[in-house]
Design goal:
The chain has 423 residues and is of the alpha+beta class. The protein folds into three domains: 72 residues, Transcription Factor, Ets-1 (DNA polymerase, domain 1, Orthogonal Bundle), CATH 1.10.150.50; 123 residues, Four Helix Bundle (Hemerythrin (Met), subunit A) (Up-down Bundle), CATH 1.20.120; 168 residues, Pdz3 Domain, CATH 2.30.42.10. The chain contains 16 helices and seven strands. The strands form two sheets. It has a four-stranded antiparallel sheet, with helices on one face. Strands 2-3-7 form a three-stranded mixed sheet, with no helix packed on it. The two termini are 34 Å apart. Keywords: Kinase, Phosphoprotein, Transferase.
Length: 423
């Protein structure tokens, strides 16, 4: 995989064409100004203003997607659990030092009520970033097999929300700083707990990328992958169909992130555009997957690892089969392994015949419910996706839902202060 800093303006344009529909109006501006990969990774709000991206919601969408590219470009070979904890501790230390420095200033007046300075807000933001990165790492196989991390992740989400709300509250400077110090102290304790709970191999092993080629796809046979978009805008494989092309490779597992499809980077893309890329060549697909470390031999893997389903049979009548359905089996397993299962929700197999391709080689994906009025090509390949997975959640949105990921699928998508047009 070539570094994103080496992208040409054409690479940037091709990547932007997969982003949110509301951003397509700006593609021509990026093309006209010949923005390359290095410029893209350093792009700022002011740069976007000059490119004609005036709406704050649209700027946020671009910058969030660029953040994903930055993480992919700079952290792919270096990030591991230990390094992420170190970064988070460093950010906590910087924030605490910032507060101590303010209080040592002779002109400091903690009894006044005023907005925090830009430097102070920057320190808070620089703590939330590593916290989100650590949260994303804990939310992947095999760490989903450690039940203790379920509560840890919830704490991180709540504490990050506390940080963002505290700096907006109407209180004295001293009270605000005390609340921030309390949150940072708890986050520091989470760092210690995480390192104690995790086995040595999982602390130091980095992610790796692997090419997987799906070929010899027969008519009437799909790729056999179940894909779900995470809260942070990544596309994660949640399982494969038994004996499908994806399953036969023995290289695709739950928790793998789809980085490229046919050599096109799809990080930050809309799900429907990822689908279109997967459908591009009926004869096969080349995937680049980002894989997390699998741990040591004595580590108990997450129950999601290597999850496979048998292709469902057509049902002529709901009452004809008395056997336990896949969904009921999954419900039973969730009662036994609820904390781990809920960390990465695997949707059940589709309840209709699995016929993703027609005789002409066109794909028809049965992993989603279809509507006769829905334009062809918007459904996800071999996946059963909830409406909320088409957009990404912020940390604050995730907390406001107040329900588990499975229950959240029944609720409408809630975005951070954005309208439907992302304005």
């Amino acid at each position: 995989m070539d570094p994103i800093t080496k992208w040409t303006p054409k690479h940037v344009v091709d990547w932007m064409k997969g982003l949110d529909d509301s951003l397509q109006q700006y593609v021509c501006s990026f093309e006209r100004e010949k923005i390359n990969g290095e410029q893209l990774l350093k792009i700022s709000h002011q740069d976007l203003e000059e490119l004609g991206v005036a709406r704050i919601g649209h700027q946020e969408l671009v910058l969030e997607s660029v953040d994903l590219l930055c993480a992919l470009n700079y952290g792919l070979e270096t990030d591991n659990l230990k390094s992420l904890v170190v970064k988070m501790r460093a950010s906590i230390g910087n924030l605490q030092n910032s507060i101590a420095s303010r209080r040592n200033n002779p002109s400091y007046d903690g009894g006044t009520s005023r907005k925090p300075t830009n430097d102070f807000l920057t320190s808070v933001v620089e703590l939330i970033g590593p916290a989100k990165a650590l949260l994303a790492w804990l939310d992947r196989t095999p760490l989903t097999g450690i039940s203790d991390f379920s509560s840890t992740k919830n704490k991180i989400i709540q504490l990050c929300l506390d940080l963002t709300t505290t700096v907006q509250q109407d209180c004295t400077v001293f009270e605000m700083e005390e609340k921030i110090l309390e949150v940072s102290k708890i986050l520091n304790g989470i760092c210690d707990q995480t390192m104690r709970t995790t086995s040595d191999p999982l602390k130091s092993l980095c992610t790796c990328v692997e090419d997987v080629q799906l070929t010899h796809i027969r008519d009437g046979e799909g790729l056999g992958m179940y894909i779900k978009s995470t809260y942070d805008g990544l596309h994660v494989i949640t399982g494969t169909t038994e004996n499908s092309p994806a399953d036969r490779t023995h290289k695709i597992h739950a928790g793998d992130e789809v980085i490229q499809v046919n050599h096109q980077t799809v990080v930050g893309w809309q799900l429907k555009n990822l689908v279109g890329k997967l459908r591009e060549d009926p004869s096969g697909v080349v995937l680049l997957l980002k894989k997390r470390p699998t741990g040591s031999s004595n580590f108990t893997p997450a129950p999601l690892k290597n999850m496979r389903w048998k292709p469902p049979l057509a049902q002529t009548s709901p009452s004809q089969s008395s056997a336990q359905s896949p969904s009921s089996t999954m419900d039973t397993s969730m009662k036994k392994e609820k904390p781990a299962i809920l960390d990465l929700y695997i949707p059940p197999p589709p309840a209709v015949p699995y016929t993703p391709r027609d005789g002409k080689g066109s794909l028809h994906f049965s992993g989603v419910y279809k509507s006769p009025l829905k334009p062809k090509g918007l459904e996800s390949p071999n996946s059963f996706l909830d409406q909320e997975s088409r957009r990404r959640f912020t940390i604050a949105d995730y907390d406001h839902l107040g329900v588990s990921p499975i229950e959240a699928s029944l609720l409408p998508t809630k975005m951070r202060g954005r309208s439907q047009c992302h304005g």
